[in-house]
Amino acid sequence: MTWKDRLQDASFRGVPFKVEEESAGTGRRVETHEYPNRDKPYTEDLGKVTFRPS
Prior knowledge:
Elements: E1 8-12, E2 15-19, E3 28-33, E4 42-48
Antiparallel strand pairs: 1-2, 3-4
């Protein structure tokens, strides 16, 4: 598959163009804590994931 075959259709304000597939890991960082003698785990929100362009 050539690079031209991997291009995707896109548009901005009605103007069509082609782009390469791009993904950014986005979301939240979480840590789950489990303790002895407890039935429920504790989930801690550590904030947004650091943006790392690929």
